[in-house]
Write a structure and sequence with these properties.
Layout: H1 3-35, H2 37-58, H3 60-70, H4 74-101, H5 103-110, H6 116-122, H7 125-141, H8 146-169, H9 175-178, H10 181-200, H11 202-206, H12 214-252, H13 257-275, H14 279-299, H15 304-336, H16 342-349, H17 352-368, H18 372-393, H19 401-427
Helix pairs in contact: 1-2, 1-8, 1-14, 2-4, 2-6, 2-7, 2-12, 2-13, 3-4, 3-7, 3-12, 4-7, 4-12, 6-10, 7-10, 8-10, 12-13, 12-18, 13-16, 14-15, 14-17, 15-16, 15-17, 17-19, 18-19
C-alpha cells in the first residue's frame, strides 16, 4: 500500500468516524443537560468499570487478529478469524459471569452503590464486543474498512435514538436508574452492530475453507494478544482506580461529596471528549497504518518513511484541533455544555490535544510492529505515576481539579517520549 492509498483509506474512515463522534458528542451534551452532573458522574464511574471489564476481549485480540491477517494468505485469514471469534467468546462469557457474581463488591469499590444498575445492564456487552472486535481485526487486517465503519455508524445511531427515547420517557425514575440508560442503549447498539458484521462475514465464517492448525493459531494469537491485553488491563485498572480516587481526593481538598462527584463528571464527561477531538482521525490512521507496517515488516520493506509521514500528519491534525479548542472554548463551555467553569479548563488544557493524539498513534504503530511488550512496560510506569500524582495533587485546596489534570499531563508526556524512542529504534 502506498502513501496515497493510505491517505484515501484514512480519509474514508475519518469521515465515518467523524459522523460517529459528532453523534456521540451531541449525545453527551444532551445527556449532561438531561441527566445532570451527579447522574453523569455515576455514568462515568460505571463506564470506568465497564472499560476494565471489556479490556480482556477488546484490547489485544483485535490487534492480534489484524496482524495475523495482514501477513497471511486468504485461507489462513479465515481460520484466524474463526479462532479469534472463538477466543473472544471463551473469554467474554466467563468475565461477564465473574463480574455478575462480584457485582456488589465492584460497585462498592467504585465508591457508590448507585452504579450497580448500570454495571448489571452492561454485562452482556462483554462477549458481544469481543466477537465484534475480532471481526474488526479481520476486516482491517485484510484491507476492508467498510464493514466496521458501517457497523459503528449503525451502533451509534441505535444508541442515540434509544437513549433519547428512554431518558425522555423515564425522567421520573431515580438517579441511579437513569444513570443506567446509556448502558442499556450501548447494549442494544452493540448487538445490532454485531448482527450486521456477522451477516457481511457469513460466507467467510460458514463456507470458506480455512488453513492452518488451530493449536498453532491459538498459540500465536495469544502470544500477540496477551502483552497488549496486559497493557490495556493495566490502563483500565488504573483508570478505574482514578475514577474512584478523584472524587475522594477532591473531598479531602474541601469540596462536598456532591460537588466532588459533579467535578468528576465535568472532567470525564465534558472536558475529556473535547480534548480527544482529533481521535476520529488518529484512530482511523492507526487502523490503516498498523496493518501496513506489519506487511512491510513481514516483506522486509522500509518502514521509516511511512512512520514519518504518519507522525507528521498526526502532529498537523493535533495542532489544528488544539487551535480549534482554544478558539471555540467559550462556545463549548457556554452554549453547548452551559458550564462557565469549563472555559478556563479548556483554555489551559488545550495543549494536551496534540500530545494525546500523538500518543494514540504511536501506540498503534508499535502494535503494528509487534512491540506490545514494550508498550506494556511503558504503560505500567506512566499509569503508576499518574495515580501517585493524582493522589497527592487533587487533595491540595489550591489545585483540586487542576491537580488531576497535571497528573494526566505528566503521564501522557512520559508515555509519548518513551514510546517515540522505542518506535524509532524499531524502524531504523
Amino acid at each position: 500500500m502506498n502513501i496515497r492509498t493510505l491517505v484515501r483509506q484514512t480519509a474514508f474512515l475519518s469521515a465515518s468516524h467523524f459522523v460517529v463522534r459528532v453523534i456521540g458528542f451531541v449525545l453527551r451534551i444532551w445527556l449532561s443537560r438531561a441527566l445532570g452532573a451527579q447522574a453523569i458522574g455515576l455514568v462515568e464511574l460505571a463506564q470506568s468499570a465497564q472499560m476494565l471489564l471489556i479490556t480482556p476481549v477488546v484490547s489485544g485480540l483485535p490487534a492480534a487478529v489484524s496482524r495475523m491477517c495482514a501477513k497471511s494468505q486468504p485461507a489462513r485469514q479465515v481460520r484466524a478469524l474463526r479462532c479469534g471469534m472463538g477466543l473472544a467468546a471463551m473469554t467474554g462469557v466467563p468475565v461477564a459471569m465473574l463480574a455478575f457474581f462480584f457485582r456488589t463488591q465492584l460497585a462498592l469499590w467504585l465508591g457508590d452503590i448507585r452504579t450497580l444498575p448500570a454495571l448489571l445492564v452492561y454485562l452482556p456487552c462483554i462477549p458481544i464486543l469481543g466477537v465484534s472486535c475480532a471481526l474488526n481485526g479481520y476486516y482491517y487486517g485484510t484491507g476492508k474498512p467498510v464493514p466496521p465503519a458501517l457497523s459503528e455508524l449503525l451502533e451509534q445511531i441505535v444508541r442515540l435514538l434509544l437513549t433519547l427515547r428512554l431518558v425522555s420517557a423515564l425522567r421520573s425514575w431515580p438517579t441511579m436508574l437513569r444513570a443506567a440508560i446509556p448502558a442499556a442503549a450501548s447494549l442494544a447498539g452493540e448487538t445490532v452492530s454485531l448482527m450486521l458484521m456477522l451477516l457481511i462475514a457469513a460466507r467467510a465464517i460458514l463456507c470458506e475453507k480455512g488453513e492452518g492448525s488451530r493449536r498453532v493459531l491459538y498459540r500465536e494469537m495469544l502470544a500477540l494478544a496477551l502483552p497488549l491485553t496486559g497493557m490495556k488491563l493495566v490502563s483500565s485498572l488504573m483508570r478505574t482506580v482514578q475514577s474512584a480516587l478523584v472524587p475522594a481526593r477532591l473531598q479531602v481538598s474541601g469540596l462536598p461529596a456532591a460537588e466532588a462527584l459533579g467535578q468528576f463528571g465535568m472532567l470525564s464527561g465534558m472536558l475529556m471528549p473535547v480534548l480527544m477531538l482529533p481521535s476520529f482521525i488518529t484512530c482511523s490512521l492507526c487502523m490503516v497504518a498498523a496493518p501496513e507496517l506489519t506487511r512491510r515488516q513481514t516483506d522486509g520493506k522500509p518502514q521509516k518513511n511511512l512512520v514519518r509521514h504518519v507522525l507528521l500528519g498526526t502532529m498537523a491534525v493535533g495542532l489544528c484541533a488544539m487551535a480549534a479548542v482554544w478558539l471555540f472554548a467559550p462556545m463549548i463551555a457556554g452554549t453547548l455544555y452551559r458550564q462557565a467553569e469549563l472555559l478556563p479548563l479548556l483554555r489551559r488544557c488545550c495543549a494536551l490535544v496534540p500530545v494525546m493524539a500523538l500518543t494514540q498513534v504511536v501506540s498503534g504503530l508499535m502494535n503494528g510492529l509487534g512491540l506490545q511488550g514494550t508498550s506494556l512496560r511503558i504503560a505500567l510506569g506512566a499509569n503508576l505515576l499518574s495515580v501517585l500524582l493524582m493522589y497527592a495533587l487533587a487533595a491540595q485546596p489550591a489545585l483540586q481539579l487542576y491537580g488531576v489534570l497535571l497528573a494526566m499531563a505528566a503521564a501522557q508526556a512520559v508515555t509519548l517520549v518513551l514510546s517515540l524512542r522505542a518506535l524509532y529504534a524499531a524502524v531504523q
